[in-house]
Specification:
single chain, 202 residues, alpha/beta, 9-stranded mixed beta sheet
Amino acid sequence: MNRRLALLALPALAACSVLPERPYVEVRRFPLTPARDPAAPMPARSGRRRVLLVRLMRAAPGQDSRGLRSLRPDGTEAIDYYAEWSAPPAELAEEALRRWLSSGGLFGAVVSPGTRARADLVLETELTALLADLGAGQARAGLSAVLLREGEGGPSLLTQLAVTGTAPIPPGPRGPEVLAAAMTEAFAAALGALERGIAVHS
């Protein structure tokens, strides 16, 4: 009899669950597709159409998360797990870097590791920052790079570069689409600074 009562009470217990129901939140994903400023001057082209090899971009500590990163006014960092980049940031940044340098005309070709083309120069990069600084009201992107010249005696160092790009965060609601757009604009500024540095030292 007691066993039968216990079995009958199970549906009632299930209906009175103390666990709250969590609404489903869809994850939003954003590309990292920086665009050149049409008004910005293009880098000076070299008379020799050199080949640049761009190696895989590394991610600095803290830059491997796909969630959009922001810096609160009190200086603490936050990662949005419901708004993220469409791929790991360093992967997107590397692909954007290749497209940027290819379209700039500074080199005859921009190639990837594994190519059969003989490279004149080699670029090694690291993504050091990609975040929205809410206290400062701006997004920030950072890159560090090493430019090498390939020669018969092996590679030789041409220069080391560390660049930063910023972009304002528009006033008003700061949804993830606004922050992602500002970070993309900041990354475009960082790419432009890196390209100018390469042009000077290559």
